[in-house]
Amino acid sequence: MNCEEVRELVHAYADGELDVARSVDFERHIANCESCAAALRNVRALKPAIRGSYYAAPDDLRASVLRFPSSPDGVRQSGGLPAAERRAGSWLLTGLAIAAALILGFFVGDAFLRRSANQNLLAEITDAHVRSLAANHLADVASSDQHTVRPWFEGKIDFAPPVEDLATAGFPLVGGRLEYLRGRPVAALVYQRRKHFVNLFIWPGDHVTEIRDEKPQRGYNIVHWANDGMTYFAVSEISAPELRQFARDFTTALSH
Amino acid sequence: METDLFEQTILPHLDAAYNLARWLAGNEHDARDIVQEAALRAFKFFGGFRGGDARAWLLAIVRNTAFTKMRAQPAQDLGPDDLDKIEDTAPQPAQVLERAGNIEAMRAAIAKLPVEFREVIVFREMENFSYKEIAELVNAPIGTVMSRLARARAQLREIILADANLRETRS
Ligand SMILES: [Zn+2]
Question: Among A83, A167, A249, B46, which lies 20 to 30 A Cα-Cα from B26?
Answer without folding.
Answer: B46
